[in-house]
């Protein structure tokens, strides 16, 4: 018999088993093992043996005398038991503590998950560390820099051919096209991507041709939700979709379906075609152009290569292609890690909007601050409770408790509290999440992941130990003699408790005044008179004629169609001030023009093409010269109006009748100057603006053009009716005749204006939520402290009353003890708030100044809240009949 | 007087120990139970039941002599104690009283 039961299992059994039971149990197990082995079932014998050993690992079998029955384990059990009893006995404080901590934890989770979401952008790609987005920076002069995250199309081939370190180069772009046929045409953002796109990024293909989804030029891939949108329950694969690209309506076959792209991705797309269609999309010339940027270019580098070696090869590559066309250092190509895209404002925004890293860090700090407040709150309250507990400590010490075991005892309590607080916090977070998303406009969703468990356990111990360690140390350091003699208080401990209360006030007041400052700033930028009257104005994007082949004809054909719509709309009584313009207020990125003037200075300005009514519609004031005359053909052809900023920028004296400084502009003359009205968000200063009816002469003179906002004109009008739904009815009834195949969109300018400050608004709401929560935590803390202080001063109050103190005097006495700390907190919070908020305000070109009143208001709110929190119990204590509290004992 | 409650498995083990008499140890009990009822129990389950019954005073145990077959480890033999015998008698008495109360013709009712 050479087979043996598994050694390790046997040893384990010997290790834990009670020696009295060992021989018999081990014998039985061995016997059964050999029986099985003899009948030839070796595997099942071992398995059964291990199974029995594990099953026997239970309290009744475990050796109770040595290994596991040591004092640590026993005391821990005992500690938890005692802790539960103590917490149960003092329900009021336990509830206060729990609520405070749970609220803090909820706030921490909500903010934390939001921050985590912002930080986790593009982290899901398995090759994320090897993918870089290419940027292009052309530096012609100090202030003549063109920095773009979109790149020339030629980069795809050029980079791949010249660098062995690069595995794949893919390009991605989105263009708006009419998709569908006949009545069912939608404007969609269609992705144009390299066929290898899905092999570089981890976007999941769920069905169809998974290996090479965009094999053919006529292939199209759809997201799951778009497959549903276009084909409902039908099988989408193999179906065809029509896309109007330029003048051609082209058919595409659905070749594959990919899973909807998660929010945490810097690439968002719902339908995409292959970049084999580039010729149709960009035109022949763009394909080989080096100075025309359109798609984003992503490179995937090979394993064990460094992006730096590619970077160092760029200058010589540029030189070999561009030769004498550019000077050294003008044409710079760089690489940005994929995971860096979402939160790096130093690199220009590409196709998708990015986050603001400053907001992310502010929120992270605030969420931690609120959690710390909650922890400090708990610590303060527990120290307060030590009054009650000091006798217990004394007795325990007399009976021989060591300091270490006392500390453990008190830490068990705080860990238990933290445990329940975290549990409640998790539940609250999930319950509050929809409300939180609704309120803040964030789109956080929490799906359980394994590391959350680790986070929760970690939090329980960190919160439990961090908030419990001070009270534990303080309590355990009490000296037996002094406790039992009755004078249990040493002043030092009081000071720390006071300091903690002050700290809590600092954070609370800081949050309150920050909220107030943010509110004021947001209010300021949203109500600031920007020199434009956009009340009740509606903006309707027009569409160019399908045959338009240049930007100027696109603009002019859209304007022509728009004027037909304009005539129709003027018939309605509720509609007035109808006009058209290439850009409307509430959108960023008005057409950007640049050229080198006659003194060889590089100039930039913004261009707005309008019809003569535009200035009128928005009430833009002409401060010098005149506005456009609707009757004048000359105005239509050559007159331009510039803003005051342009007058200063170009340095034109007496501008009326003059030309812009530049040689190549077509025939034009300045007929008027407007005041400086804000046409982009108040983050930026007012830039020089040229308003014209005819863009051709201006286009002739500029060397560079850039469009953040589509320059295809919009129709604007003022709607004075009371029913907003009627606007839609009117527009729909007139729209179809003029634009039979285009979709109607319209928006209120006021809404768009608000939307410009969306991230600020969300930020403000998030901070407001934290503020309210921290106020609640702070007042819970105060409430608890008041009760404790009053309980310890019951006799004092009674004696004071007996010798003639008034109720109000008593109230003053009790409230007074907090007011010093409160005032100190307010005072200390001012510099912190000032510094952080100033930092935030620097984001705005137009900002309020932080003034005293906001701190006064913030302080006032906290004083009121504090008074409310303490008054109930204080007043109760002041009114109590002295006999009741003196007669006891 | 309050009787100590015994569970179904405890009762079964108790009966088995009583029936084997003087030769009862865990593995054997396991086998006997399997033989009579077809139930496939874990040896650990038998062990814990035996310990429980011993602590309730229904069984007494003694270590047997050294053996060859199990690595020289001794067996632990169980016998019914006085209290164990009494407990099993009581259980059986209750059962038989109830059993006898059943009308003999219960099954015939079906045909009426």
Provide a descriptive summary of the structure in words.
Chain A has 889 residues and is of the alpha+beta class. Chain A is built from 27 helices and 22 strands. In chain A, a hairpin with a 6-residue loop joins strand 3 and strand 4. With 112 residues, chain B is mostly helical. Chain B is built from four helices and two strands. Chain B has helices at 8-20, 26-37, 43-56, 82-101, and strands spanning 59-63, 76-80. Chain B is elongated, with a radius of gyration of 18 Å. The interface between A and B is medium-sized, with 19 and 19 residues.
The proportion of strand residues of chain A reads: 15-25%
Q: Helix/strand-derived class of chain B?
A: mainly alpha
Q: Radius of gyration of chain B, rounded?
A: 18 Å
**How confident overall, as mean pLDDT of chain B?**
82
The total strand number of chain B stands at 2
Largest sheet entry of chain A = 7 strands, mixed
What characteristic shape of chain B results from the CA principal axes?
elongated
Number of helices of chain A: 27
Question: What is the averaged pLDDT score of chain A?
Answer: 83
- Oligomerization status of the protein chains: heterodimer
- How much helical structure, as a percent, in the residues of chain B? 40-55%
Shape of chain A: globular
Helix content of chain A: 40-55%
N- and C-termini, Cα separation of chain B: 44 Å
Per-chain topology:
The complex is a heterodimer of chains A (889) and B (112).
Chain A: H1 7-16, H2 19-38, H3 42-55, H4 71-89, H5 91-119, E1 131-141, E2 144-148, H6 155-162, E3 166-179, E4 186-193, H7 197-200, E5 205-208, E6 219-223, H8 224-231, E7 240-245, E8 248-258, E9 271-274, H9 278-282, E10 296-301, H10 307-322, E11 331-337, H11 357-398, H12 403-440, H13 450-476, H14 480-485, H15 491-527, E12 537-541, H16 551-569, E13 575-581, E14 592-596, E15 602-609, H17 614-617, E16 622-625, H18 633-638, E17 639-643, H19 644-650, E18 669-674, E19 689-692, H20 696-701, E20 704-706, E21 714-719, H21 724-738, E22 747-748, H22 749-755, H23 758-792, H24 794-802, H25 807-841, H26 852-879, H27 882-887
Parallel strand pairs in A: 4-9, 6-8, 15-19, 17-18
Antiparallel strand pairs in A: 1-2, 1-10, 1-11, 3-4, 3-7, 3-10, 5-8, 6-9, 7-8, 12-21, 12-22, 13-21, 14-15, 14-20, 16-18, 17-19
Helix pairs in contact in A: 1-3, 2-3, 4-12, 5-11, 5-12, 5-23, 11-13, 11-15, 11-23, 12-13, 15-23, 15-25, 15-26, 16-21, 23-26, 25-26
Chain B: H1 8-20, H2 26-37, H3 43-56, E1 59-63, E2 76-80, H4 82-101
Antiparallel strand pairs in B: 1-2
Helix pairs in contact in B: 1-3, 1-4, 2-3
């Amino acid at each position: 018999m050479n087979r043996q039961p598994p050694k390790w299992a046997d040893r384990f059994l010997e290790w834990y088993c009670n020696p009295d039971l060992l021989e018999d149990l081990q014998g039985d197990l061995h016997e059964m093992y050999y029986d099985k082995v003899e009948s030839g079932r070796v595997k099942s014998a071992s398995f059964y043996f291990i199974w029995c050993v594990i099953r026997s690992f239970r309290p009744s079998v475990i050796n109770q005398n040595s290994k596991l029955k040591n004092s640590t384990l026993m005391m821990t059990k005992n500690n938890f038991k005692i802790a539960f009893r103590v917490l149960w006995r003092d329900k009021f404080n336990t509830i206060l503590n729990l609520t405070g901590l749970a609220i803090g934890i909820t706030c921490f989770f909500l903010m934390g998950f939001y921050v985590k979401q912002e930080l986790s952008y593009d982290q899901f790609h398995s090759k994320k560390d090897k993918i870089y987005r290419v940027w292009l920076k052309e530096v012609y002069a100090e202030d003549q820099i063109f920095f773009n995250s979109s790149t020339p199309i030629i980069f795809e081939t050029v980079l791949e051919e010249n660098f062995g370190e690069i595995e794949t180069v893919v390009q991605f772009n989105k263009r708006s096209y009419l998709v569908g046929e006949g009545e069912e045409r939608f404007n969609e953002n269609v992705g144009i991507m390299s066929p290898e796109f899905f092999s570089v990024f981890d976007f999941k293909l769920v069905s169809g041709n998974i290996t090479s989804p965009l094999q053919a030029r006529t292939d199209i891939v759809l997201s799951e939700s778009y497959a549903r949108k276009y084909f409902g329950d039908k099988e989408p694969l193999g179906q065809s979709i029509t896309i109007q690209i330029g003048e051609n309506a082209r058919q595409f076959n659905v070749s594959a379906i990919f899973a909807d792209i998660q929010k945490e991705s810097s690439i968002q797309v719902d339908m995409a075609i292959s970049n084999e269609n580039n010729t149709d999309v960009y035109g022949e010339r763009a394909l080989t152009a080096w100075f025309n940027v359109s798609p984003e270019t992503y490179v995937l580098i090979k394993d064990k290569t460094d992006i730096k070696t590619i970077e160092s090869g760029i200058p010589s590559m540029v030189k070999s292609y561009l030769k004498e066309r550019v000077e050294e250092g003008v044409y710079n190509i760089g690489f940005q890690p994929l995971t860096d895209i979402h939160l790096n404002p130093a690199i220009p925004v590409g196709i998708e909007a990015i986050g603001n890293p400053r907001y992310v860090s502010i929120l992270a700090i605030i969420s931690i601050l609120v959690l710390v407040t909650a922890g400090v709150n708990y610590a303060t309250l527990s120290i307060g409770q030590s009054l009650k507990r000091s006798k217990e400590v004394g007795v325990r010490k007399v009976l021989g408790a060591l300091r270490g075991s006392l500390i453990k005892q008190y830490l068990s309590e705080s860990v238990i509290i933290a445990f329940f607080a975290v549990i409640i916090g998790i539940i609250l977070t999930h319950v509050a999440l929809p409300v939180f998303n609704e309120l803040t406009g964030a789109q956080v969703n929490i799906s359980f992941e394994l590391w959350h468990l680790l986070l929760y356990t970690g939090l329980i111990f960190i919160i439990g130990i961090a908030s419990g360690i001070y009270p534990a140390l303080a309590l355990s350091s009490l000296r037996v003699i002094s406790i039992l003699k009755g004078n249990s208080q040493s002043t030092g401990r009081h000071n720390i408790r006071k300091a903690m209360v002050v700290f809590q006030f600092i954070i609370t007041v800081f949050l309150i005044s920050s909220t107030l400052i943010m509110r004021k700033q947001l209010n300021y930028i949203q109500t600031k008179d920007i020199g434009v009257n956009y009340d009740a104005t509606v903006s309707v994007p027009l569409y160019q004629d399908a045959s338009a082949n240049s930007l100027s004809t696109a603009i002019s054909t859209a304007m022509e169609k728009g004027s037909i719509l304009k005539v129709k709309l003027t018939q309605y009584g509720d509609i007035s001030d109808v006009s058209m313009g290439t850009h409307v207020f509430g959108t960023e990125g008005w057409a950007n023009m640049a050229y080198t003037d006659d003194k060889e200075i590089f100039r930039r300005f913004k261009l707005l093409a309008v019809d003569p009514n535009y200035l009128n519609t928005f009430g833009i004031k002409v401060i010098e010269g005149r506005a456009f005359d609707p009757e004048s053909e000359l105005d239509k052809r050559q007159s331009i109006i510039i803003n005051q900023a342009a007058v200063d920028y170009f340095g034109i004296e007496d501008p009326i009748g003059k030309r812009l400084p530049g040689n190549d502009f077509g025939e034009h003359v300045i007929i008027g100057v407007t005041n400086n009205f804000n046409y982009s968000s108040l983050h930026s200063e007012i830039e020089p603006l040229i308003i014209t009816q005819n863009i051709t002469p201006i286009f002739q003179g500029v060397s560079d053009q850039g469009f953040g906002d589509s320059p295809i004109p919009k129709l604007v009008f003022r709607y004075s009716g009371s029913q907003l739904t009627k606007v839609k009815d009117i527009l729909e009834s007139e729209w179809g005749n003029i634009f039979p195949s285009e979709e109607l969109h319209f928006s209120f300018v006021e809404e768009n204006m608000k939307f410009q400050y969306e991230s600020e608004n969300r930020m403000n709401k998030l901070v407001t939520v934290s503020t309210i929560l921290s106020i609640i935590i702070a007042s819970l803390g105060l409430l608890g402290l008041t009760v404790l202080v009053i309980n310890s001063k019951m006799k004092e109050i009674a004696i004071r009353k007996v010798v003639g103190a008034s109720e109000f005097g008593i109230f003053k006495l009790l409230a007074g003890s907090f007011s010093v700390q409160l005032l100190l907190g307010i005072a200390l919070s001012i510099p912190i708030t000032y510094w952080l908020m100033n930092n935030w305000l620097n984001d705005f070109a137009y900002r309020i100044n932080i003034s005293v009143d906001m701190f006064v208001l913030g302080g006032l709110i906290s004083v009121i809240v504090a008074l409310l929190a303490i008054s109930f119990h204080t007043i109760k204590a002041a009114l109590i009949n002295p006999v009741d509290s003196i007669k006891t004992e | 007087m309050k009787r100590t409650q015994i569970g179904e498995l405890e009762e079964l083990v108790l009966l088995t120990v009583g029936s084997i008499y003087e030769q009862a140890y865990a593995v054997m009990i396991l086998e006997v139970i399997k033989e009579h009822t077809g139930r496939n129990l874990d040896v650990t389950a038998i062990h814990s039941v035996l310990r429980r019954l011993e602590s309730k005073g229904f069984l007494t145990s003694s270590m047997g002599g050294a053996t060859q077959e199990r690595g020289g480890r001794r067996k632990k033999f169980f016998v019914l104690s006085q209290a164990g015998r009494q407990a099993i008698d009581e259980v059986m008495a209750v059962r038989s009283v109830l059993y006898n109360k059943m009308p003999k013709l219960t099954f015939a009712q079906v045909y009426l």
